[in-house]
Amino acid sequence: MGVFAEQYCRRMIVAGIYVQSNVFLAPITGYTDIAFRLLAESYGAGVAFTEMVYVEDLLRGRRRAVESARFDAQEPVRALQLIGGDPSLFRLLCGSPLLSDVEWIDINMGCAIPEIVRSGRGYALVHDLQRASGIIEACKSSGKAVSVKCRPGMDVKERSIQAFARMCEDAGADLLTVHGRPGNQLHEGPVLYDSIADAKACISIPVIANGGIFSEEDAVAMMRQTGADGVMIGRRGLEDSRIFAALTGL
Length: 250
Fold this sequence. Notes:
By secondary structure, the protein is of the alpha/beta class. It is built from twelve helices and ten strands.
């Protein structure tokens, strides 16, 4: 058993949901389907999120969105990631039978793809705290667990994480995931450990650290430098899903 499994891996309870480990599978467009989620969970992933699904697409019944929001009965936690910019649409969707099988809603407020930001979705919400708060409250009114995934800023000079993290907690979010790379870096470049640590220091809800974790050593370094409550694995999980077993000791 490795250092992470011995010293950092633990079970969690989030909004009354039992989570088998604090090692999560990130939502990855085109990849985190039922089969891949079940594989990650079999290796110990505590939560395996669906790919990002547009709120409007689900409300319109578009086939790709409906398929992406399906779950298998064997999945221990049914966690759906949504992206959108209109609190009223989130409220309509989250309270509808369309999400009757969903236990956990993750709100994407970190996607930095330019067209998504220009549409008022994803990272754009970090700079619109009132609208972001309304979205979180709308999701939480459904009684489901609610988390938010964000980035610390659009570039290394912009650090807006603490005000945003406090807003998330005040609005009712049960957990915050911080991808430690600025938006203009997407999935490359150094991780801003200090920004994740800043988020952890200013709120009491769990903080999950994401970005640049390709080995057990990376995961241990992330925990030591940020004080986070767990880690989220993305691309490395695609390359070798056994990283979940390495981190959880399974």
